[in-house]
Amino acid sequence: MFCHCGKKAVIETRIGPLCKEHFVEFFESCVFDTFDNFELISNAKNIGVAVSGGKDSTVTLYLTQKYVENKNLNIEIEALCIDEGIKGYREYTINDLKRVCSDLKVPLRIVSFKQEFNYTLDESLKKINTKSCRLCGIFRRYLLNKYSKDYDVILTGHNLDDEAQSFLMNIFNANTDLIARQGPITGVISSSGFTTRAKPLFWCREKEVFVYSLIKGFNLRFVECPYASSSFREVARTFLNELELEDINVKYNLINYLLRILPDLKKAYANGEIKRCKICGEPSSQEICRACYYKKQLA
Ligand SMILES: [Zn+2]
Ligand SMILES: [Zn+2]
What is the CATH number of domain 19-298? Predict the structure, then answer.
């Protein structure tokens, strides 16, 4: 496999095999174009980047800073990490995160389940009988919503694979309302209670993010969450990767199709009134949001 320049290729992309230098160029312009074309951070004065210490959010943080510097934008960036308190996992990624943030000179803010709910995820699971990933997801979303309010935009590390998997899963579950929330900028309406969420890696394949993070030498540990279990998402991931072996464009095509139907979907779901949780005031489909419901059980 050789790059168009004649050098040995390090990866196959939708524009052909690329060497290290040409891949870095391709990858970065892909991310920068996403910032430009979808105006991810225009009008923002301060940005939060949701970080975990994994490759996706680290690359997002790095390239956001690079973009802001290249364009000479007057924007503050802060890294926001949610510490669930998962032994044998989070302490390692937080260590990596501290190193990355100090290298990049980006302030790191850590909010934890422990300080917010009085219990770590590990401790909560001993008191509440529910699936670990479900409880974790509910509490994470709650904290992300709550602390997002301090920023004009919050950027997340979701990549093309994540987006394509979510789209497939939402189709198979007939979750049209959730599809309406997809896209490079999340949410159907901008209203108080929701900080805009945007995905700079929207057009980047997971494999490309991985190779880019290796080339850049971020030196991240690849620890897996001990609660990770095989899920519907895993099936969707494998399925899409198998299709991609046949045609490298499948994920792009799927997401291009999503973008074609998205404006109509967003319009269709824009009129619903937002209900709020009676206890915390966060947006919720029920009277009391799931986070407050579980918080009560912990009390
Ligand atoms: Zn080349
Ligand atoms: Zn609530």
Answer: 3.40.50.620
